[in-house]
Specification:
single chain, alpha/beta, 42% helix, binds 2-phosphoglycolic acid
Length: 249
């Protein structure tokens, strides 16, 4: 039985004041029945670490460097994230792939760095609308996945995967539960073919998850929770999504 997970991706939003209001509201809620992670912008790791200490909410980051250390201005290493008790890190988000030209191999290296540091990488995969309309969804997602499978080998069962169709991110246009399930099943089968332990990998769905569509999405057999962007910035919405995941655990 895979335990459900809900991870909030704040992206480049927040301030010291807004973060405190949001995190205080999350902390005040009843203990979640699933794993909960909030992935905050790096400058706020210390603040979030302080507020989340001794709470059931886990701290995550939104990216890490593929390098260990060195002359990489602006980058943040996994050991720096570990200094703030950061246990999770998103890698390969479509916004990083699109705006920072991150290749599948770079994303795989970041996932490897995270694992080496004892962190859980949340590896994002997903196709654009154009690719879906051309019937390339499985080819694109398969190639993104294969890069990670190749590099991580048997350690693949230690990661979390997030399927985020690019056309559903921040657009209000969610993949239907059936569309999402179809790709999730494809991902799981491909990963299991590579390594049997991959049956236990958690596969999150991301892309316009809201309180009103979360229950149905999370009820799909291969959807083990969600990676939440916009709705993770509103405490009531995020908590309702966390409840939806707990409900279907
Ligand atoms: P969204 O973002 O929930 O705002 O669509 C999801 C994501 O980018 O992780």
């Amino acid at each position: 039985m895979r335990r459900k997970m809900v991870a909030g991706n704040w992206k480049m939003h927040g301030s010291l004041a807004a973060n405190k209001t949001l995190l205080d509201a999350l902390i005040a809620a009843p203990a979640p029945a699933c794993d909960v992670v909030v992935c905050v912008p790096s400058p706020y790791l210390a603040q979030a670490q302080g507020l989340l200490a001794r709470t059931p909410i886990n701290l995550g980051a939104q990216d890490c460097s593929a390098h260990e250390q060195g002359p990489y201005t602006g980058e943040v290493s996994v050991s720096m994230l570990r200094d703030f008790d950061c246990g999770h890190v998103i890698v390969g988000h479509s916004e990083r792939r699109a705006h920072h030209a991150e290749a599948d191999s770079t994303v795989a290296m970041k996932a490897q760095r995270a694992l080496d540091a004892g962190m859980t990488p949340v590896v994002c995969v997903g196709e654009t609308l154009e690719q879906r309309e051309r019937g390339q969804t499985e080819a694109v997602v398969g190639a993104q996945l294969d890069a990670v499978l190749l590099l991580l080998g048997e350690r693949i069962d230690q990661i979390v995967l997030a399927y985020e169709p690019v056309w559903a991110i921040g657009t209000g246009r969610t993949a239907s539960p059936a569309q999402a399930q179809e790709v999730h099943a494809f991902i799981r089968q491909r990963a299991v073919r590579h390594h049997a332990g991959a049956a236990a990998i958690r596969l999150l769905y991301g892309g316009s998850v809201k309180p009103d569509n979360a229950v149905e999405l999370f009820a799909q057999p291969d959807i083990d929770g969600g990676l939440i962007g916009g709705a993770s910035l509103k405490a009531a919405d995020f908590l309702a999504i966390v409840d939806a995941a707990g409900f279907s655990t």
